[in-house]
């Protein structure tokens, strides 16, 4: 175990905090992330196609889905990340805030910012997650 | 808006449920995932190096970290996924259960199954997340 522990340390990297502009840049480039919310069984995570306007995060869900029910109102978070398994490196950005159901008229004006679902089916539940706190970290090899 | 909606549908894929053996296979191959847990500010998501023994998920955290405090005991979930932005396809697996702090002696016997953190620093908080429910989905283009 000692030898393995020593070898392990050779490849370990340092975690550094990302500044807010870097977090916002990564969010702006991203088309898919993960939303975390509580249902009756505790916290769950599910991928969604989210977009940001630089402040909040928007995504669309299917009416009647578990995620839509859980996200009706309340605290939630949205995470994006990227990893390099070979270099054992990566980064992540976390947005935490309140989820609210909105109507399409409440969306930001820029069409390109709209979340476009990759999955088929009507997705008429529009959610806005307020970006109360935005933080990020990078693991550098 | 109508034209954009029509174009959007051309590229949308179908979501199918993954069978449990497929979920377990993906979990066994994975070295990094995301844990979701609640702290005082609601649900949060953070990447961790997790490993599974086919039933539960194990990972190591830094003593005193926010994640370690939030994960002391209670409901949590672990998610892995993979996306192909070009094909707008992807998959995800979600493990939901109870998080418990364990001692290294409680780990499964197979050494190769141990979670090896990519990040430096002592990570003496060992967590086992019971795999109460394991589910997965694939979005095929």
Task: Note the topology.
The structure is a homodimer of 141-residue chains.
Chain A: H1 2-10, E1 14-18, H2 20-29, E2 33-39, E3 42-48, E4 50-52, E5 57-61, H3 66-70, E6 73-84, E7 89-102, E8 125-129, E9 133-140
Describe the structure.
- The structure is a homodimer of 141-residue chains.
- Chain A is α+β, with helices and mostly antiparallel strands.
- The first copy, chain A, has a single domain, classed as Roll (Pnp Oxidase, Chain A).
- Helices cover 17% and strands 47% of the residues of chain A.
- Chain A has three helices and nine strands.
- In chain A, strands 1, 2, 3, 4, 5, 6, 7, 8 and 9 form a nine-stranded antiparallel β-sheet that branches.
- In chain A, a hairpin with a 4-residue loop joins β4 and β5.
- The longest helix of chain A is centred in the first third of the chain and has 10 residues.
- The mean pLDDT of chain A is 87.
- The interface between A and B is large, with 44 and 44 residues.
- Chains A, B: It comes from Nocardioides jiangxiensis.
- Chains A, B: This is Pyridoxamine 5'-phosphate oxidase family protein.
């Amino acid at each position: 175990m000692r030898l393995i522990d020593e070898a392990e340390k050779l490849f370990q990297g340092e975690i550094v905090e990302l500044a807010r502009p870097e977090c916002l840049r990564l969010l702006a480039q991203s088309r898919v992330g993960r939303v975390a919310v509580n249902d009756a069984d505790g916290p769950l995570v599910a991928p969604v196609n989210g977009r940001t306007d630089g402040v909040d995060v928007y995504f669309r869900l299917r009416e009647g889905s578990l995620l839509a029910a859980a996200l009706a109102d309340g605290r939630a978070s949205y995470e994006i990340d990227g990893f390099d398994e070979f270099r054992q490196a990566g980064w992540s950005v976390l947005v935490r805030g309140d989820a609210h159901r909105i109507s399409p008229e409440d969306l930001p004006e820029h069409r390109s910012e709209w979340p476009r679902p990759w999955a088929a089916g009507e997705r008429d539940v529009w959610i806005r997650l307020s970006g109360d706190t935005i933080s990020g970290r990078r693991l550098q090899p």
